[in-house]
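ARCHIVE CARD
Drawer: 12
Card no.: 0347
Subject: one protein chain, sequence and derived structure
Cross-reference: see card 0346
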Amino acid sequence: MKKLLLIPLAALIAAAPGATQTVAPAELKWMDGPPGLPPGAQFAVVKGNPGAKGMFTIHIKMPPTYAVPAHHHPTDEKVTLVSGKLAYGMSDRLNRANALGMNVGETVVMKAKMNHWVLTADGAEVEVSAMGPFQITYVNAADDPRNAGRAERGQ
């Protein structure tokens, strides 16, 4: 059974300059999600530096009714559901009818450049480990939150 990945990116780079030590869950420093994620998510760096070459681990908190449209990453990612409920799928478009659920403690690995999406009805926290630097590419550029407002600005 193929499985999922998750998100962040640009703000991760700025948020974790030189971070290399593992952080205990109670010591996580939560901040707003990076510009590459839809608004509302929070993330914390556990180990490494997502903006640099090398392994990193982050946690991402997604609020209720949160979704990340179809996207992919340049490297494999390992995602573990820490709490809550999470659904995902592998395709070029978010499709709730075909979503697969994850149980707390379950780990999934998404291969590099595999299009996938994720959503949660009730909220969720995940742990993501991958090789940096971390990047996210949306299948549909209009879904990329970094492009918000460009059409109004004529870009």
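Annotation on reverse: The two ends are 40 Å apart (CA to CA). Helices lie at 10-15, 150-153.
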